[in-house]
Amino acid sequence: MVLFSRRLINTLLLECHDNIYSGHLSEDRTMERIKTCAWWPSWRKDVIVYCDSCDRCQKANKATGKRFGLMIHIQEPSTPWEVVHMDWVTALPPGGDKGYSSCLVIVDRYSKTPIFLPCHKDDTAMDTALLN
User: How many domains does one find in the chain?
Assistant: First the structure.
């Protein structure tokens, strides 16, 4: 079937790429489906443009955001407490006699020993420095 109507071309692209039974095929597979049933002068270019502009395919197939940096080897510490990791656990239900709602977690990289320090979500840097 030879197509020249833009409306019919768009309908065919929709059916061969977006249809629930098509499953958002790649450009090559969409071309394979179209070439068995229709032709128009710019059909290959139209398929590429259509697939590249498919919102669902862009979200599912393309990496978004900033690329990760190169992986490097991190030197392991040779003694305990030489390197520590710290993170906050927040939005906990209030607990203890002072109603703590957060926890500062400190982990020694060498021994994997954790320390859990209860605190409040609105503690300042000075409050955190004075925890013990």
Answer: 2
Q: Specify burial of residue 12 (Cβ count, 10 A radius: 0-12, 13-18, 19+).
A: buried
Token output for 21: 């039974």
Residue 68 counted as domain residue: no
**Average pLDDT value for residue range 7-17:** 90
Tens digits of per-residue pLDDT, 25-58? 888 999 999 999 898 999 999 999 998 888 888 8
Query: Does the CA dihedral 114-116-122-127 come out positive or negative?
Result: negative
- Does 75 map to a domain? no
Residue span of the structural domain in which 118 resides = 84-129
Phi, psi of 51 (to 5 degrees): -65, -40
Pinpoint the alpha helices (H) of 1-132.
Answer: 6-13, 27-35, 43-52, 55-61, 125-129
* pLDDT tens string 64-117: 566 777 788 888 999 999 999 999 999 899 998 899 999 999 999 999 999 999
Given a contact cutoff of 8 angstroms between Cβ atoms, the answer to whether 13 and 3 are in contact is no
Taking alpha carbons only, the member of 45, 57, 44 closest to residue 17 is 57
